[in-house]
Amino acid sequence: MSTNTISKVPLLDLRAQYDTIRPEVDDAVRRVMESCGFIGGPEIKGLEEEIARYSQTAHAVACASGTDAILIALWALGIGPGDEVICPSYTFFATAGTISNNGATPVFIDIDPKTYNMDLHLIEKAITPRTKAIVAVSLFGQCADIPSIKAICDKHQLFLIEDAAQSIGSEWEGKRSGSMCDFGTFSFFPSKNLGGAGDGGMIVTQNAELAEKARLLCNHGAKPKYYHSVVGTNSRLDALQAAILRVKLRHLDRWSEQRAKNAALYNQLFEGTAVGRPYHDPRTRHIYNQYVIRVTNRDGLKAHLAERNIGCEVYYPVPLHQQKCFASLGYKTGDMPHSEQAALETLALPIYPELSEDMIRHVAQTVRDFVANK
Fold it and tell me: Which uninterrupted H or E stretch holds 346?
């Protein structure tokens, strides 16, 4: 197929994915419908066991969303009013929103401009007597240097949560995302590498006591039913979602490998241009939840691609320290230059596994043409 005949490339094509696994998904949905077991049960237990095994952790607790996963992890660690929690400014809102929802104060730090993960050199400067935890984000599918962050946490007796919403299956020197801290949290939002047919999340940990706390909090603090040792909430994953995710988990490594191949082709096609390519730390397994480029006229490129029916997305246009809801924290423009610059220059291109080589070449050529003429 000539790239000239390609009329549209979406940012994500979930129908294309579904078409490759339709019989498996339909069978899983039918199995749940026929059982009429929609809450809890063998699908949830099976998914928890499979995610724990996949993530190299001892325990996994299913919950209603990736946001809830962070919220409940913080809650289980006893973080609340008067506490400070360090996190990066350049990330999805849930990273800091959950800290505030627990009554604690987010303390933002800047990112490493190469990886977009938090700058390790800034962490200790942000620690105060009120600091209780760090939420480290493994952004865009590349695992952060969790061992180094964990060493800082151990030194200062802080908890560590990895917001691994975009990085299930990514690794740092062979250790899986989510496995190296007090809690790892995953999102199964449909656009993720492992995405459901709606919202969903998972909390993973090596600690049995923390897993039990998280499980109680997800289910109104009840064990057994109607007997409440703590006040929790309702954050349960539906059995239908679990059944679909169990199917998709079997294909996840193949999909992640194809994303990496697609990224390698993009990298080759952008070589020698003014397009900033994603940095891949050689110590990591990068799963490319997003393929994020950098250009100086990002908004112009975004419009150029939209006019040609090529999907793209800005992750994220406003760093958290500049968000209106956090204005009372006193941050100002210029406090986190790398986060602010990334917000102005980054653009995610289609990277999903079902992309054809011609589609990738078409996207890359369209980007190259724009950059060359600016």
Answer: strand 346-349
Please state, in angstroms and as integers, the Cα–Cα distance from residue 276 to each residue in 233, 312, 313, 323, following that order.
Answer: 44, 15, 16, 26
CA distance 138 to 50: 21
Q: Indicate whether 240 and 296 sit together in one domain.
A: no
**In 3-state terms, what secondary structure has residue 39?**
strand
**pLDDT tens-digit series, residues 158-177:** 999 999 999 999 999 999 99
User: Do 174 and 284 fall into the same domain?
Assistant: no
Token pair listed for 59: 């325990």
Assign residue 258 the CATH number of its domain: 3.90.1150.10
State how far the Cα of 178 lies from the Cα of 182, in Å rounded to an integer.
9
- Do 236 and 309 lie in one domain? The reply is no
Q: Is the peptide bond before 116 cis (omega within 30 degrees of 0)?
A: no
Q: How many structural domains does the chain have? A: 2
Identity at 196, one-letter amino acid code:
G
What pLDDT score does 70 carry? 98
SS3 143: coil
Q: What is the pLDDT of residue 3?
A: 57
DSSP H helix total and E strand total for the chain = 12, 12
Query: Structure tokens of 91?
Result: 């990330």
Co-location of 276 and 303 in the same domain: yes
Of 223, 249, 275, which residue sits at a domain end?
A: 249
